Amino acid sequence: METFVNKLQNHIEHVKRVGEHCSTEETTKQALILPLLDILGFSPYDPTKVLAEFAADFPGVKASERVDYALYCNGQPVMFIEAKPFTANLTNHAPQLSRYFNSSLGVTIGAITNGKEWRFFTDLINTNVMDEKPFLVVDFTRHKAEELIQLAEFRHDNFHVEKLRYFAEENQYIQLFKSVIRKSINEVDIDFVRYVAQQASIQRQLNTKFLESIQPFVKQAVEQAISDTVVKGLSSPTIITAKPVEQITETNNPADSNDGFEDIVDIHNDRIITTKDEQILYSIVSELFPEAQLNQRDTESYYSILFQNKNNRWLFRYDVNRKRPTIQFIVPLDEQRKIELIRSGLEIQPNGTIFLDKPEYIYRAVGILKDSLDYCSNDENFKRTSNG
Fold this sequence. Notes:
It comes from Acinetobacter shaoyimingii. One of its GO terms (molecular function) is type I site-specific deoxyribonuclease activity. Keywords: Endonuclease, Hydrolase, Nuclease. This protein is α+β, with helices and mostly antiparallel strands. The chain is 41% helix and 15% strand. Strand 4 (110-113) and strand 5 form a beta hairpin.
């Protein structure tokens, strides 16, 4: 990952240095767009990864129109890119990308770029219809390399459509929620005051007159709370990122409710208790991967989810027999996965286990969960075990 960040840093300097000389679309492609694709592992010299002037039988699209670039993984197109000159306003050209996107059932990720700004789109609102707003916007003239770590999601060796769609959904919701939260804490309107008063269990009738009287106090409390969080964040960087994600999960995740789940005691061993949290965890994973053959297995030491009910093909082991529950995935935590976990607000222990205080937090590690499923689904990874 350090190498990737260094390459991005060099690319940022390159864009700033030569961008103004890219007056045509072709120059922009050669000088700015293709170098980034190469950094992402999509070599412009390999037609099995990058196909220029991609043409397909798109209904409703003129025969003369072609997608500037189609990116390929495993022999299938996975992403369309529409290129424009460095000085072009991308907003004016989004409908062109939309026509290609909407006409192709196999591609759900699209990007439009002028070399300095990249806008990434998918179809979160209506299937096979490109969203009007991008789920990620990257500007190489304004961002630092370490702020562009999200681009690692688009690397050829890390390109998973399901993972990207979750990433897109996460980004979209976080941006929307940040906007609402920012507005609420800046304006501190009456609805926000009422919510704070209710959560604080104020023993008063929460009528308008009373809420208006405490409005200045709530505003002051918000400012102090933000200040305290920033100060703590200087010594613990993950605190700031963890809080917003936790709020989103608790507010919007239906699995947050424990309705329908009760602890289950094994009739053969009363020391094996499948807890509510373990059942919720299984419910979430089953919902994420409905086509996979997954089974749950509980022991005195840990709870696990197995692929095809095979003991050696465990996606993860979950241990609630501690002060703080932990989870361990079957795939190793390389630097890229560690960065992904830390960015989502999860804490990693030196032994490679991860604190999972609530089962819903598995959503934060859905990419690694998918990697674990892929690993367990590949018989090649278990040949030595089965022959032994």
